[in-house]
Amino acid sequence: MTDTAPAPLKILGSLDAVSCEGDFCDIAAGPNMANTSPAVSSNDE
Amino acid sequence: MSNPIKVDIWSDVQCPWCYIGKRKFEAAVADFEGDVEVEYHSFELSPDTPVDFEGTPIDYLSERKGMPVDQVEQMLARVTGIAASVGLAYDYEHVHQTNTVKAHELIHFAKSKGRQLDMKERLLKAYFVDGRHVGRVEDLADLAAEIGLDRAEVVRVLTANTYLPDVKADVARAQEYGIQGVPFFVFDEKYGVSGAQETAAFTNVLEQVRGEKAPVT
Fold first, then answer.
1. Per the domain annotation, does B136 fall within a domain?
2. Which of A44, B11, B210, B211 has the most CB atoms at less than 10 Å from its CB?
């Protein structure tokens, strides 16, 4: 990595995968994702 | 290794989904016909947690979030079951909730020795499976020695906070990317994948990135 700000990322895959946020793990979404195929949502569009 | 796909992974040692996601990602890489270079980065889920937190993860989560204990227990039972499905025997009865900044410093030290991946795996297993403490310098030095790193050197660099700037740089880069949860996977500094996705999802992303890297004919 460099010291310069990174380019915005394209987010792939379903966004409801389980993860940990803050001091807590968000497991409400569960592991059974309806859509696991890459689909570009956009934070750079 | 020729033109590998670089995967930067933000993760915390005490994030259950990070270990599960690690296994699912590793399964995708194992079946992927291409070179993949992995680098782990620091993400502190609870930087204000005392190193010697008095209590269990159930106490911690219920106190922090005001959730009923039985609800927290159900959640941990569920994640333990999912971990088992990928071959990980989580033992929450013996987990030591702690501050992970020194563990992150150790991961950076291990990277300087070319042993980052081994150290990351050892720390996750120590926390979730083995009931080991991953917040105290002496305990971390023991774990480092178990993978062949110099124990005395580990004590020295952790005591001196030698790799703390590297941890903070990782956290800052996560903020620049807008990462709010972990695990978070960045492919070739271009694509982001959030959460413990299924192996097929990681496979799809790897194949997409490989396709875009292929030379135009």
1. yes
2. B11
